[in-house]
Design goal:
There is one protein chain. The protein is built from 11 helices and 31 strands. It is α+β, with helices and mostly antiparallel strands. The chain has 3 domains: 215 residues, Thrombin, subunit H; 87 residues, Pdz3 Domain (Roll); 193 residues, Clam (outer membrane lipoprotein receptor (LolB), chain A), CATH 2.50.20. The protein has an 11-stranded antiparallel β-sheet. Strands 1-2-3-6-5-4 form a 6-stranded antiparallel beta barrel. It has a 6-stranded antiparallel β-barrel with strand order 7-8-9-12-11-10. The protein starts with 10 loop residues before the first helix and ends with a strand.
Length: 621
């Protein structure tokens, strides 16, 4: 029941209360001497904050089911509409979704790539008119974040912004290099993340965290909520943008990416003092770290260029890298220390597909305990984004991988010429320098007209020959010359790469269908003059990767992201062994195309040979 308050009956008391109330109102509306004395620096900081918000707001997205029902937030990072968000935001939407921007418009959008472990997804907004450009934000450097600095979170908590104008919250960075364990089976693991007291709530997921320059330093994804309801308790977590940068090359080419493991476990030896030491407690024999010389009881001094003094610190660093990357590792054995490059292994559990059972949901039906059903699924079939979706195991959207393959093939033709007609015999005459001797060398690629290419190497009276696709060929023969790890097989694959066209060719003479874009990885080509720097990481070149497969033979081809130059490859045919590494230098004209006139072959930790070409002979068909 609503009650009415009782007022005094006596006029004197009434007028006294009224007069007092009026005085308070007048005092509240009068200019305050304290407000008049607000320091200029404080007012200036406020003006700067308002300006930063105005600058970045147009790029903040409301991520929606197709049709407009909001399910999270995102942020546009390129003028062509690339948009970052959380994996758990797009998981229920499917590959076709929509994103609303502060201009009040809803844009058809499509999933490109995803990282289930790190809880990141990349989507693409489609412009209303071809050629239209989107507002976007600049990526910052999250390694520069410090506890105590101010930050801005933007997004759409509780779906409040029906016109897609984002909510803004302002707060402090509470901590850096934080760790939050997985929420699912190996998924949604937040490593090396940023802790904030900047308020984020359900709906903020996938939205941006900015520094006070308006640079994107993280993607908001998790928070600690009051047990009585979904209300933020002042502790939120953002995935650092530097971690996302490591995976960006994979996300852009449609990969359902995976995080790394080293293949070794560590234990902390606590000592008196401020720092502890960590030691190898066990290792997998098939790990690259084991092959590079790391053994149980060795002390891990630094990993990926960062000092390590505890197992938690090591795991936090490891969690920000994709599988297959090579990173530096420094270890100590006794009084001696050594730095090596190690290839990282995959972390995600392998999916074992079982036979359908009676009562199992049919394809396309909701899975028990899975994400909620998609209310826009039927309408999404009519979206222009529908033609930009291609399903392939291991990929979030293979359509974008094919586009990236085509771009790299075009760069090969642009940089080195058209090899499509050079499918006859090849020959190289030159010099070879081995570890203990040197001399003349001749390499030949012989086409026997059946697609079974033979590769020969003749040097100072010694001849090795391999037909890689010949039935029954043994590992020892494939590894020729002895000690090279398979130089001739690697050169056979090099010729396939330069001449292959994926469509319309004899399957015996091309990689089709074993040809995909592998995202991006660091590559460490040794200097052409052989003089190594003090630190291995000084050799790093960020590269786009093509992965090829022909029968049992696999290779990774590394293209410099800056100029698309082909720097080298790693070729394998026995997964548990080191690859044969080729490094290409001195690309020069060879009968209308360009070919490397210096090739360095490495296997394991040793350089097997340096081949310098004097002439090439190429037969056209």
């Amino acid at each position: 029941m609503i009650t009415t308050p009782r007022f005094p009956r006596r006029p004197a008391v009434w007028f006294a209360l009224a007069a007092g109330t009026m005085a308070l109102v007048l005092a509240a509306t009068a200019p305050s001497p304290m407000l008049a004395q607000v320091p200029a620096a404080v007012k200036g900081a406020e003006d700067e904050r308002v300006a930063v918000i105005a600058k970045v707001k147009p790029a903040v997205a409301a991520v929606c089911f197709y049709g407009g029902k909001v399910c999270g937030s995102g942020v546009v990072i390129s003028e062509d509409g690339l948009c970052l968000t959380n994996f758990h935001v797009v998981q229920p939407t499917g590959a076709i979704l929509a994103c609303g921007l502060a201009d009040g418009k809803l844009y058809d959008s499509v999933l490109i790539g995803q990282d289930k472990v790190g809880d990141v997804a990349l989507v693409k907004l489609l412009p209303k008119k071809p050629g239209d450009k989107f507002p976007f934000v600049k990526l910052g450097d999250s390694d520069l974040c410090r506890a105590g600095e101010w930050s801005l979170a933007m997004g759409n908590p509780f779906g409040l912004a029906m016109d897609f104008n984002p909510t803004v919250t302002f707060g402090m960075i509470s901590g850096v290099n934080r760790y939050q364990p997985p929420e699912g089976k190996g998924t949604l693991e937040y490593t090396d993340c940023i802790q904030i007291d900047t308020s984020i709530n359900p709906g903020n997921s996938g939205g941006p965290l900015f520094n006070m320059k308006g640079e994107l330093i993280g993607i908001n994804g998790r928070g600690s909520f009051d047990k009585r309801g979904r209300v933020n308790s002042g502790v939120g977590y953002a995935i650092s943008i530097n971690q996302i940068k490591n995976f960006m090359g994979h996300l852009k080419v449609g990969i359902d990416t995976d995080h790394a493991t080293l293949g070794a476990s560590f234990s902390t030896d606590a000592e008196e003092g401020d720092l502890s030491k960590i030691f190898v407690s066990s290792m997998l024999d098939e790990s690259d770290a084991f092959r590079r010389g790391l053994k149980p009881q060795d002390q891990l001094v630094a990993f990926a260029g960062r000092s390590t003094t505890s197992t938690n610190q090591y795991k936090n660093i490891l969690g920000i890298y994709p599988k297959d990357w090579r990173v530096s590792l420094r270890y100590r054995r006794g009084t001696a220390s050594k730095e090596v490059l190690v290839r990282l292994m995959g972390n995600m559990d392998k999916v074992i597909e079982k036979e359908p059972q009676p009562g199992d949901p049919k394809p396309g039906q909701p899975q028990p305990g899975g994400p909620p059903s998609n209310p826009g699924a039927e309408k999404a079939k009519l979206s222009p984004a529908a033609k930009m979706v291609e399903v392939k195991k291991g990929y979030a959207n293979y359509y974008f991988n094919v586009l990236a393959q085509d771009e790299l093939l075009a760069e090969i033709k642009k940089n080195y010429g058209d090899f499509s007609k050079l499918t006859g015999n090849w020959a190289l005459d030159g010099n070879v320098q081995l570890a203990d001797r040197g001399g003349n060398v001749k390499l030949t690629w012989i086409d026997d007209k059946t697609g079974t290419m033979e590769v020969k190497m003749s040097r100072e009276g010694i001849e090795d020959s391999v037909k890689p696709l010949e039935p029954g060929i043994g590992v020892g023969e494939l590894s020729l010359p002895q000690g090279s790890g398979g130089l001739l097989v690697s050169l056979w694959q090099f010729r396939l790469l330069m001449t292959q066209l994926r469509d319309g060719m004899n399957p015996n003479t091309s990689f089709s269908p074993g040809f995909v874009h592998g995202g991006s990885e660091p590559f460490y080509p040794p200097p052409a003059d052989g003089k190594l720097p003090a630190n291995i990481t000084d050799l790093r070149v960020d590269c786009d990767v093509l992965k090829t497969k022909k029968g049992q033979f696999e290779a990774k081809w590394y293209f410099d992201q800056k100029n698309h130059a082909l720097l080298g490859c790693e070729a394998t045919f026995v997964k548990e062994e080191d690859p044969c590494e080729l490094y290409f230098y001195d690309w020069k004209d060879a009968g209308g195309v360009k070919l490397p006139h210096k090739i360095v072959c490495k296997f394991g930790d040793k350089t097997f040979a340096t081949i310098t070409a004097r002439t090439y002979g190429l037969v056209r068909k």
